[in-house]
Amino acid sequence: MMSDLETNIDTLLVDQPRPQPQPAAVEYEYQHQQPRSRKQSFMRKWGPALVAIAGVIALNFALIGGPSFSNVPALNEKQLFARKLGAERTAAVEAMDFDFEKAKLDRKMGRNRNFGSRNLSESDGGIMEYTRRRHRVLGDYVHEDVSDQFTAFGKWTVSIIYFAFWVFLMFPNWFLPIGRPGIALGGGLTMVVYRFILYSFGHGPVFDAEKVIILEPLFLLFGLMLTTIYLEKMERGGLFDKLRNSLDDPVNWKRSWKIMLMSTIGSAAVMNDSVVLIFSGVVVDLCVRHKVANSMPYLLSLASTANIGSAFTMTGNPQNILIVSLAYDDISWTEFLMNMVLPVLGASLVNTIMVFLWYGQELFPGSSGIGEHLAILFTGRKTPEIIALENAHQAKLAQNPVEESGGWSIWSKLQVLIAAIFLSCFALGYDVCVVSISTGCVLMVVNAYKHQHYDPRDDLTEYDAEGNALPPKRMYDMDGNEIEPEEEELITESETTLTEVDYGLLLLFMGQFLLIGSFDDTGVPQAFFAFTMGDCADQMTSVPCVYWFVMIITILSNVASNVPVCQMLAATFPYATPYDWMQVSFSATIAGNLTMLGSAANMIVAFQAAKVGDRSFTSERHAPFGIPSTILSLYLGTFILTSIHFAPE
């Protein structure tokens, strides 16, 4: 019996297929893609963020002397004179005869929206005429204080609604699967209805919903989407594909570094929202191509550096564009860039180090620690795992060779020319909304012409099971007469490319504008700013108050968004200097990396990645990295900007 049983077992074992040995590169590639089952402890995940928050609070309290602001110096003669001059000028402007009804009609008809150069000649009215024009135009942009028209009940309930939808937007997966655009639009419409109810029962003023929706960012975003879609779709192997291929690399840390470099330069040249709009799907595609288990390091490399890089120029993000419009003094494109170079480079360095440290296991596979990370970066050292990744990539290329592109076609060269003109118009200070939409329209016409006259026609021939072409079908009317086929119907741009514009993203912004605008009406953000700034309110960009000011701006930018914060400050400090606005711009921009709702670029990355199936970029995964990285970047950059700047104070 035993011998028969042993014989049967041996037979079964022999009949089973034996696993084939795998090459080392393929074996590592397979193991490398497996998700890590080890769950991080609370302190390991959130410890650095908690330490960073405690450290920045302790630093600020030490600098300003605690809640009593005992270390804050008294205002000097220059600051007292500036305050007195500003009050006198505002009073003089308000005392001037002014037809408010005519000005309101002019704004509605699109007239008198510009207030020109600050250096008006005396025959044109000089500085007072400039100030009068500016105050007139700012009615379209700056928040008007109506908080005294709310009852306590109205303020509390509007604030509760705002924070409820803020939580919904931060954590959309905790509730119904509506998506952020639906949540934001639902919140905005809820706020409109609720404000009408409050007004009807005497608990609040009329809600001017039309005014709080700032059209410039929406126009700009639409134009950028239109431009980027046509740059991508015009030609296979064109400018867009060449940029995308330049980001590819088999080594993880090099791929992350290329993404950060491209994102920083692109955001400074164009705008951070457009860069992440173009390359979010590209980054996800690279992660799928290399079968990485965690795409978060690469999406963070894109989003965080897009925010930081956008601080370089006045056209880098919506709040910078708004700041240049609202600033009392003229700020040139080059002046802005010169002041921001050193602080942004410092913030970029800190962010890069944080990405490489935080995600060291993913970006430096096989590395034993920080020392080996540095050796890999600066001496070219390679771990066996990195060598295996390179070998696997070469083996894949050998099996599936990449087709060599035919160089730069006439359409690719035309793309480069249009893109160069587009960037030049930005740098020369032309209206960014008009430039972006005009560029998209030009590319649309070029693309339609190319499709009509140069692209091959689609083959509509039908084939049988054996591959033989079938004769075209003939149709007959009721009398048996053959119906002649009509001329081939053209497929229009409205049916193809224009449908790819992300209108849901525009709805997301509109909903957020309605939520934030109503919340600002209550005066709660302004009261929070005035209360927390204390004695620093009149010297917010002077040491030591500047570091406390940066912390408050960071909090407000992540609660009420950075664009409304800039609007609020323009109304609160109408005569802020160019240096004051530089500090506001830098802090409001870098603060966008603190949480996922801190900037529109973060939301776009999450939204675009989710559209192609990657939902790893969430608030819960962003904040543990974003908080310590942002605080370190922000305070190093602020120290540099405070120490070295060229803008007048």
Please write out the topology.
Elements: H1 2-15, H2 24-32, H3 42-64, H4 77-95, H5 100-109, H6 126-137, H7 152-170, H8 180-200, H9 209-212, H10 215-233, H11 239-246, H12 252-269, H13 272-289, H14 296-309, H15 318-326, H16 333-358, H17 360-363, H18 370-379, H19 384-399, H20 410-427, H21 432-453, E1 475-476, E2 482-483, H22 503-521, H23 524-533, H24 545-559, H25 562-572, H26 578-590, H27 600-611, H28 619-643
Antiparallel strand pairs: 1-2
Q: Please describe the biggest sheet, giving its number of strands, its sense, and whether it closes into a barrel.
A: 2 strands, antiparallel
Proportion in helices? 55-70%
Question: Would you tell me the overall average pLDDT?
Answer: 78
Give the strand order, joined by hyphens, for the main sheet.
Answer: 1-2
Number of helices: 28
Rg from Cα: 29 Å
Low-confidence stretches at least 5 residues in length (pLDDT < 50)? 5-37, 112-118, 136-142
Q: How far do the termini sit from each other?
A: 100 Å
Q: What is the N-to-C order of secondary-structure elements (H for helix, E for strand)? A: HHHHHHHHHHHHHHHHHHHHHEEHHHHHHH
Amount of beta strand: under 5%
**Number of beta-strand segments:** 2
Q: Structural class of the secondary structure composition?
A: mainly alpha
Q: What does the overall shape look like?
A: globular
